[in-house]
Write a structure and sequence with these properties.
By secondary structure, this protein is an alpha/beta fold. The protein folds into two domains: 2-203 and 383-400, Rossmann fold, CATH 3.40.50; 206-381, Rossmann fold (3-Layer(aba) Sandwich), CATH 3.40.50. It has helices at residues 16-30, 59-62, 82-102, 117-129, 144-148, 155-171, 183-189, 234-246, 260-269, 283-290, 312-319, 331-339, 350-362, 364-381, 384-400, and strands at residues 2-6, 34-40, 68-71, 109-114, 133-138, 174-177, 197-199, 221-227, 250-256, 275-278, 295-299, 324-327, 342-345. The chain has a seven-stranded parallel β-sheet with strand order 3-2-1-4-5-6-7, sandwiched between helices. Strands 10-9-8-11-12-13 form a six-stranded parallel β-sheet, sandwiched between helices. The longest helix has 21 residues, at 82-102. It is globular. Residues 222-376 form the Glycosyl transferase family domain. InterPro entries: Glyco_trans_1, Glyco_trans_4-like_N, Glycosyltransferase_grp1. Residues 27-187 form the Glycosyltransferase subfamily 4-like N-terminal domain. Pfam families: Glyco_trans_4_4 (PF13579), Glycos_transf_1 (PF00534).
């Protein structure tokens, strides 16, 4: 069986998308599948950071680069401006189109991940070009999430994107989702779509759970790691930093994204000595850094679309045995509360979040109990070594069918 993976985000790019596709690629290779990757040169969150050798540390990919085709992208700006980002996506789509049309290889399965939806459409073209089955990996509902960040509201273009989305769902042979919160969306889209679904969440590798234990008696630390973008509600993060400063609690921010500078300016303007601004780093280094902390922070704005998602940073926090204190609603809130792995405010209340952090700070037994729950939760439901079997079973089924 030969598989072509088409993805905008791939190793060594940081973030949930790049890590997800890298892990699936490596684990399928270990299982004996032949997988080639069509992707771009690393650009997210900026191409400059990938000049550092620290990010290129995956020997199993670096040794045999023939299986990874990286297309050069001229547009160097990953902007919050919709039209700038649109042209960036279109450039990637067109270059991938041309590559697929000229490619002489043959594949049995095309595995494409979305968003952006433009790359997913390359997967649809590739399905017919190679006469292959199409496996669509949906990491985020798009264009629902586009409406959720409130940067674009031209109804005729949103309508066009929704038609593109529906076409992809109908033409895909199977659809992978990384959040069970997406199921109702597919039920409402079209009868019979749920039969195509397989739930394959972001997860941890076993080796990633074997982190150094925190030293007893060390300072209490809160961490925010990952994207500070339009969906994450930087206002909450800024106010949280200010409140924690009043309680002399350290906040480590390993961040990037279009709102990072807004947050950085706020920290400097208010002279928040408790905030440590840490540059983005490779995944293992980031996990090691987070494992020295006590609590992980997650925020999303109050748009209804984000009630369906499970942010990748939550899985990373749990991998590091960090109870989560979050401003979320819907699926993520239910999961965190039912598994007793943290506290959630659905009212976007910074004061409530601070009270939860102080509760964990003042109650070491509760903190230890939740840390134990985090470990059990990951081992029970969110290990790639277990969950990858869902994908391999599906691939084998597709090959026979």
């Amino acid at each position: 069986m030969k598989i072509l993976m088409i993805t905008q985000n791939f190793y060594p790019e940081i973030g949930s998308a790049g890590n997800r596709m890298k892990t699936i690629f490596l684990m399928l290779k270990q299982k004996g599948y032949h997988v080639d990757v069509l992707t771009t040169e690393p650009t997210y969150p900026s191409r400059d950071i990938y000049s550092q050798e620290d990010f290129w540390n995956e020997q199993d990919i670096d040794v045999d680069r023939n299986q990874v085709t990286r297309l050069s992208i001229q547009n160097k700006k990953y902007s919050s401006n919709f039209f700038s980002r649109l042209f960036y996506y279109l450039e990637i789509m067109l270059k991938m189109f041309f590559y697929v049309q000229k490619d002489k290889n043959q594949y049995d399965i095309v595995f494409v991940t979305s968003p952006p939806i433009f790359v997913a459409f390359v997967g649809l073209v590739a399905k017919y070009r190679y006469n292959a089955k199409l496996l669509l990996d949906v990491r985020d509902l798009w264009p629902e999430s586009l409406k959720g960040v409130g940067v674009f509201n031209r109804s005729y273009i949103i309508w066009m994107f929704e038609k593109m989305e529906s076409t992809l769902y109908k033409k895909a042979d199977h659809i992978i989702i990384n959040s069970e919160g997406f199921i109702d969306h597919f039920k409402n889209k079209c009868d019979g779509l749920t039969k195509k679904l397989i739930f394959l969440p972001n997860a941890a590798r076993k080796k990633e759970t074997m982190l150094e234990k925190r030293e007893g008696g060390s300072m209490f630390n809160v961490v925010y790691a990952g994207n500070i973008g339009l969906a994450q509600d930087v206002t909450i993060l800024m106010q949280l930093a200010k409140k924690l400063n009043e309680h002399h609690i350290s906040l480590n921010v390993i961040g990037y994204g279009v709102q990072k500078q807004t947050f950085t300016d706020f920290v400097r303007r208010h002279n928040l000595k408790n905030v440590k601004l840490i540059k983005p780093m490779g995944r293992q280094d980031c996990l090691n850094r987070m494992s020295r902390c006590d609590v992980g922070i997650a925020t999303l704005n109050n748009s209804r679309v984000f009630e369906t998602v499970l942010p990748g940073k939550i899985i990373d926090y749990l991998t590091c045995r960090l109870p989560v204190v979050a401003s979320l609603s819907g699926y993520s809130k239910q999961l965190i509360e039912s598994e007793k792995i943290g506290f959630v405010t659905s009212r976007q209340s910074v004061d409530e979040m601070v009270s939860y952090i102080l509760k964990l700070y003042n109650d070491p037994e509760l903190l230890e109990e939740m840390q134990s729950n985090c470990r059990e939760f990951i081992e029970k439901k969110f290990l790639w070594e277990n969950n990858i079997n869902k994908l391999t079973n599906l691939l084998d089924q597709m090959a026979k069918g």
